[in-house]
Design a protein that fits this description.
elongated, 264 residues, 6 helices
Length: 264
């Protein structure tokens, strides 16, 4: 506040005090029943008018101040609500950032683990490719799978036993026996089908001959024999084919044994 404003306020306060002192004197005289002169009545009216004007101005000023205070209060409440909302947003953002950071860390760990597994698989593949025997290759795979040393030793013993010539020979014999049994089963099925077809052909030939005789056509007594001879020739061809397949499988088995360095 400047000096001029402070001096004006002091003058107004002094005038108000003087006016109220004069107003008190006039009111005391009126209360005692003393008649007021026209000048005193005019002065009383002037004092009352001035007091009313100051009261009205004071009410307007107070109303304006209250309105300003209410607006300031509203702005304060709005600012507080904005602060609360900003704090909530910040809390949510911090929570999301923490979750994103945790996800990134987990993802990094997963990628690191996958990279390590890939490197381990590459090393295992290199060991398998460089292995001289099946036992070494399977042992490398067992180490990659994380088996214990005792389990690896047992695994190596079994795989070494699998590489033994006698075991290899027994496996080849078993494969040959399975192939032979399969061929025999197929041959038996083919023979049954050929017998069924032969019987059907014979029945049809007999029926055809009977029909021809009933119709007065020349008798064809040799037709069933011809069909039977053809069936015999078909069975002979099938047996020759089975023998050829058996000989080919035996030759393949001997070739595999020789390639593996196993004598029969």
């Amino acid at each position: 506040m400047t000096r001029s404003k402070f001096a004006a306020r002091r003058r107004r306060a002094a005038d108000r005090d003087a006016r109220r002192a004069s107003l008190d004197v006039l009111l005391d005289r009126a209360q005692r029943g003393t008649a007021l002169t026209p000048d005193e009545a005019a002065l009383l009216r002037a004092h009352v008018t001035a007091e009313c004007s100051e009261a009205d101005e004071l009410r307007r000023t107070v109303g304006g101040q209250q309105t300003a205070m209410q607006r300031a209060h509203d702005r304060t409440r709005a600012a507080e609500a904005a602060i609360v909302e900003a704090e909530e947003d910040a809390t949510r953002a911090l929570g999301q950032a923490a979750r994103d950071r945790q996800f990134a860390q987990d993802r990094a760990k997963t990628l690191h683990a996958e990279r390590e597994r890939a490197r381990s698989a590459e090393r295992t593949l290199a060991r398998v490719r460089a292995a001289d025997t099946l036992a070494e290759a399977l042992t490398a795979i067992a180490v990659h799978d994380g088996l214990s040393p005792a389990a690896i030793s047992v695994h190596a013993a079994f795989t070494a036993l699998a590489d033994h010539p006698a075991v290899v020979r027994a496996e080849h014999d078993r494969e040959h026996a399975l192939a032979l049994a399969t061929a025999e089963r197929r041959a038996a099925v083919a023979e049954r089908q050929a017998a069924q077809e032969e019987a059907t052909a014979l029945r049809f030939a007999n029926y055809l001959a009977a029909t021809q005789r009933a119709a007065g056509a020349p008798n064809w007594p040799a037709l069933p024999d011809t069909v039977k001879a053809l069936a015999d020739r078909a069975r002979a061809a099938e047996r020759n084919l089975d023998q050829a397949l058996t000989a080919w499988r035996s030759a393949r088995t001997r070739a595999r044994r020789q390639a593996a360095g196993v004598t029969p």
